[in-house]
Amino acid sequence: MAATSWYRVGSVALTNGSKTVTGTGTAFTSNVIAGDLFFAPDGKIYEIDIVTSDTVLQLYSVYGGTTASAQAYGIVRNFTANSQSQVAANMLALQQKYNSTLDQFDSFMTSPNSTFTYSGVAKATLAALASACANALDRITTAAQTIAGQVTFNQNVGIASTIPAWAGDKALQLPWGAISSGYEYSLNVATVAYRDNASWRYQVTGQPATLYRAINGAHSWFTAPSGTAGNAISFTQSMTLNASSQLLLNTTSAPAYSSVMRMNGGLEIHNSQQLNVVPANANPFEFVNRAGGGFDFYTTGATLGARLDSSGALLLGTASNGANARLVSYGNFALFQDGTYTGYLGKASTLVSGGAASDLALRSDTNLVLCAGGFNEGARLDTNRNLLVGISSGSQHTIRKSVTSNAGNATLFVNGDVETSLAVYGVSGGSVGNAANAAVKVNRDATTLRSINAHGTINASGADYAEYEQADAQSVGLLKKGDLVGRTAEGKLTHLFDSAVTFGIKSTDPCLVGGDVWADENVIGKRPDAPQLNLPAYEGPADPGEKPEAPADATETEQGESDFDVRLAKWEADSAAYRAAKSQHESECEQSRAAHQIELDSYEKALAAFLEKLEAARQTVDRIAYAGRVPVNVPSDATWAVGDYLVPVKRKGRIVAEFVSPDKVSFDQYRRAVGQVFGIYQDGRPFVAVKTI
Q1: Which of the residue ranges 238-242, 413-417, 632-636 has the most confident prediction, judged by mean pLDDT?
Q2: CATH for 463-518+620-693, options being 2.40.300.10, 2.60.40.10, 3.50.30.20, 2.60.210.10
Q3: N or C: which end of the chain has fewer CB within 10 A?
């Protein structure tokens, strides 16, 4: 019987739901037998049922993996579900060879015309025996003979071969092999070897020797390299089928539990459902077919490394489908878990609210972190949905790159097809300006004092350039967009004509505004930052999963109870440690939530105070147009025409506009005029071009 080995020649094609395996470049007939183990591309093990031809196999069960061709595979050869039947087949072949040898011997000794029989029961005399021997010798040397009865030889027998110096065994010697027996209830079959009492010796020089031995219900196979005729042979016991039906490869040590096969430093299968890989350090990696479906993988002793359960979930370091470090496939997504924290990869329609089935989603129960260059964090999407690049915390989307500020070092490029559309550089100009709300706020380079370099035009919907100016205390809140305003001797805005030294128009829709410093941090302070809830990470022991299963049957219980007790005790200790650590972690999380709520309450109060201060500061300033066009408020009885000049006059103490045509305006009126009507605004008011001086 050949040693168990792998067969991987060629490739195979398989169809989901089919038992047929079609090979390309394979030779199944001479290398594979029914009962061998087929390691399929889907990572599962199937039993071979029928070898149809060199290129076709039939599995015992249907293939459960994905339909595919040109796939790698592996077959453990010369292994059957019933090892005794294989040995019986080998013994039958040996018996047939033995019978063939006897048939050749019988043909040599007998013929239809010459017989040698002795059926008498009386004692023969020496003379009679001599006569009979002479008669037999004459018949043997002159013609073929037939022996009709039993023949007993008290010495070794050689067939077409010189008999070596056998001692201790009785042997039937063939040209390059022998059948012998030297111990009670034993049988040896050897090639190019003979036995000299306690030693086996080479029959010829330069040929390797083999030996098969059957004794006490066990079968053993031995091999030896080539040697010199007459020298002692040092056989290596390569394979044993012991009386307990355990098949041992390259070892004579049988395991304590019921095994079907054991290979020294390699493969071990027992109870028809457990596969062990036993390394030299005697710490086996166990592959167990679970009674409830699926497989368990044990690393050392009672430590569970992984489980492939009956639902198709791959659980890493746990037996529980809700514990730590697991990779589970649910058809639409894969799940990765460590303790209470879970990550998902799969269809967006399954993982994201409103997601499309055609989209791929990556989801995390906590922060989603990207790393590059080892363990260095590059970016994260936190639980508040803030995208943070180059920074690990923040209350808004943030892109950060560590560069020297105010030195023209870029932190962000936005490109079109070829050219750069937007470039952002590292600066440290102090702040992003006014604290009032805006769509975009830009800092400045502390060296050049520039905020924006524009290669093209800057377009806006507004029609005038304005500047913020401080209002006089009597006029705060009284100046409306489009009103004519005055400036006091102190340079503050007023609505009273007698207090005014110069005049202007309050802007309605500016495209550019200067003097925007009324709400700088040095005036009203810094807007408070919202506190972030950062729960402590769980760093305790992992969930040990489900309680270990007791051995399935009486035999296994007797042999595996000690191992089960070890696993059970470890599980109970690990479970207690896990519960204590989880309780402590939840307590720490509650403390973090309570502290965050206190910070949040304080933040909301500080924000309300800041916004109140900001609004108070805003009420003290107004935007005054210095160029461009603005709509102007006029008395209801005023008449005007395009081209008229707006001259400030007094009415009921306030400043109002008087319209003077170009052909009637005096020099003093022109000097005091704030603008000239260029058109009609969309609401019917005069649209005035601002006169700066």
Answers
A1: 632-636
A2: 2.40.300.10
A3: C
